[in-house]
Write a structure and sequence with these properties.
Blueprint: E1 2-10, H1 29-39, E2 52-55, E3 61-63, E4 68-73, E5 82-93, E6 96-105, E7 119-123, E8 135-141, E9 145-147
Antiparallel strand pairs: 1-2, 1-8, 2-7, 3-9, 4-5, 5-6, 5-8, 6-7
Length: 148
């Protein structure tokens, strides 16, 4: 039940990785969140502490059944609790294939840094040579998330 869509790697806000210079999250939000997700049963240690922002324009996505859903996660002393969902995915770039997870902070609980309707944030192992503007193929489980 897999579906594939072409996507382009786009720059993000830099808060997930800590590269954006936000002093509230010096090592990035993903590094801060990893222990909380680990405690809830999701081990993100194999993945890079940042997200790939993949534009699937002109397509958009529809949330169906997340692989993981975590409600009311208080991961930062200075930020409100948030809800998160994760979905299986695979990234194909040239000759490399990496399994990853679509990282979806629920917009209704996310205080800032919202994404466009065509952007999927993906957590994956580091992919050497991947740059902004590169085309990738994103493979998703259509039972979890649908591309339209």
């Amino acid at each position: 039940m897999k579906t594939q869509v072409k996507g382009i790697i786009k720059p993000g806000y830099g808060v997930a990785s800590g590269k954006g210079g936000d002093t509230r999250f010096p090592d990035g939000t993903i590094a801060m969140q990893k222990p909380f997700f680990q405690e809830l049963g999701l081990d993100l240690s194999p993945y890079f502490s940042g997200t790939l922002n993949i534009s699937i324009y002109p397509h958009e996505y529809i949330i169906k059944t997340p692989k993981y859903i975590f409600i009311n996660v208080k991961w930062s002393p200075s930020e409100p609790a948030e809800d998160f969902s994760f979905f299986d995915c695979r990234i194909l770039h040239h000759q490399s294939t990496r399994d990853g997870l679509i990282y979806y902070p629920h917009p209704e609980t996310k205080p800032e840094h919202l994404q466009g309707a065509d952007i999927l944030e993906v957590i994956a192992p580091k992919i050497e040579g991947l740059q902004y503007g590169d085309e990738v193929i994103l493979e998703c489980d259509r039972r979890q998330i649908e591309i339209k």
